[in-house]
Write a structure and sequence with these properties.
mainly alpha; 6 strands; 50% helix; globular
Length: 171
């Protein structure tokens, strides 16, 4: 296969031999522990110097007022609220931060606040977990360096915050 000339790559993706770089990296990452290790560490360094990439860049702008995703999510939240009201059940929306740079430089603060504010303005019980995670080193809350999902410690923080909220606010 020769290199393919691309005049307009989608979302400014770099094209290499007719494939988007992210697709190439995904295929390598799934087959090599070394590649997973290196890519996860490169991502951490990029986040620390302010470069947004990977999952974070997918969310940037996704919660702007008229974005398709945010319109869909708002409707679904309102549908869930109506569903609970019809059944005389209480709804609690728990907004969990993406585990990355849990400081005043949190890369998804705008998107996070958009969801929290929408829920509160629509009179949904809303628990914003960002303050509970603020200041923690994000990587210490990951399952492992290759998996940024919440680990046991992060789940404990969530469980304690949710329990406290339910006992104090939802009786």
């Amino acid at each position: 296969h020769g290199a393919t000339e691309v005049k307009h790559a989608p979302k400014a993706s770099v094209v290499l031999y007719g494939r988007r770089i992210d697709a190439l990296l995904s295929s390598i990452k799934g087959k090599s522990y070394f590649a997973q290790y290196m890519l996860s560490h490169i991502a951490v360094v990029c986040r620390r110097v302010g470069l947004r990439g990977g999952y974070i860049s997918q969310f940037a702008g996704a919660y702007e007022e008229n974005s398709e995703l945010w319109l869909k999510n708002r409707k679904e939240l309102q549908d869930i609220k109506r569903f609970c009201e019809k059944r005389e059940s209480q709804l609690l929306v728990v907004v969990t931060p993406f585990l990355s740079d849990l400081t005043s430089h949190y890369p998804l603060q705008i998107e996070h606040n958009t969801v929290v504010n929408f829920c509160r303005c629509n009179k949904m019980n809303t628990l914003d977990l960002f303050p509970y995670f603020y200041g923690h080193r994000a990587e210490s809350l990951w399952i492992n360096p290759l998996n940024g999902h919440p680990n046991k410690q992060a789940h404990k923080i969530m469980a304690e915050a949710v329990s406290k909220y339910i006992l104090m606010e939802m009786q």
